[in-house]
Amino acid sequence: MTLLLIGLILFLGAHMLPVLASRREALVSRFGGAGYRIAFSILAGIGFVAIVYGYGMARAAGPVALWYPPVWTRHLTLLLMVPVFVLLVAAYLPTGHIRKRTRHPMILAVKIWAFAHLLANGDLASVLLFGTFLAWGVIDRISLKRRGVAGGAGAATVSAGSDAIALVVGLGIYVAFVLWLHPLLIGVPVM
């Protein structure tokens, strides 16, 4: 559990720097833009690896159950995950209606992913992992709104083609994840 906590602190700590604009600016002025990005990437990368290994170790050690979610929450999680993959793809395409309306599709995808997985998992490691990511998503979105970062909302042109690509590719990734990737990468079959 310790490695999971260290990973969450490193990964989400690095991702909280933009929320603390003055701290981020001080680091950029000290190390330069490239130096800051390199340090951010290294810190986030180490944190991500620690999260993956820490969560796996916590699951292998035997889950510490906080509650036992009813079976229907797994079905709700499957449903909630559909837009997550569409939003993730939309975040990296030219602005379409999806990106324009959601403004920050990546953050929305993380919040839905975390909430959906909190519904289906009642063990301590899962609550720490998904609860922390959900809290970060809420804090980051509020911060972006307060700082006036428009995301996709400020785009002059909107590409319907981007929406079509996001839907097709996102749904394709969703199906692949449900059928093959989740058991392969996470070790837990979805169905």
Number of strands: 0
Q: List the secondary-structure elements in sequence, H or E.
A: HHHHHHH
Which runs of at least 5 residues are low in confidence (pLDDT < 50)? none
Largest sheet: none
| Global morphology | globular
Domain count: the total is 2
- What fraction of residues sit in β-strands? under 5%
Return the average pLDDT rounded to an integer: 92
Number of helices: 7
Cα-to-Cα separation, first versus last residue: 27 Å
* Helix-strand makeup class: mainly alpha
Helical fraction equals over 70%
Output the radius of gyration. 18 Å
Key attributes of the depicted protein:
mainly alpha; 2 domains; 7 helices; 0% strand; 191 residues
Structure explained in plain terms:
- The protein has 191 residues and is mostly helical.
- The protein has 2 domains: 1-62; 64-191, no CATH class.
- It contains 7 helices and no strands.
- The protein has helices at 2-16, 21-60, 72-91, 97-102, 105-120, 124-147, 160-186.
- Helix 1 (2-16) packs antiparallel against helix 2, helix 1 (2-16) runs parallel beside helix 6 and helix 3 packs across helix 7 (160-186).
- The protein is globular, with a radius of gyration of 18 Å.
What would you say about this model in short?
This protein has 191 residues and is mainly α. It has two domains: 62 residues; 128 residues, no CATH class. The chain is 77% helix and 0% strand.
Q: Layout of SSEs?
A:
Elements: H1 2-16, H2 21-60, H3 72-91, H4 97-102, H5 105-120, H6 124-147, H7 160-186
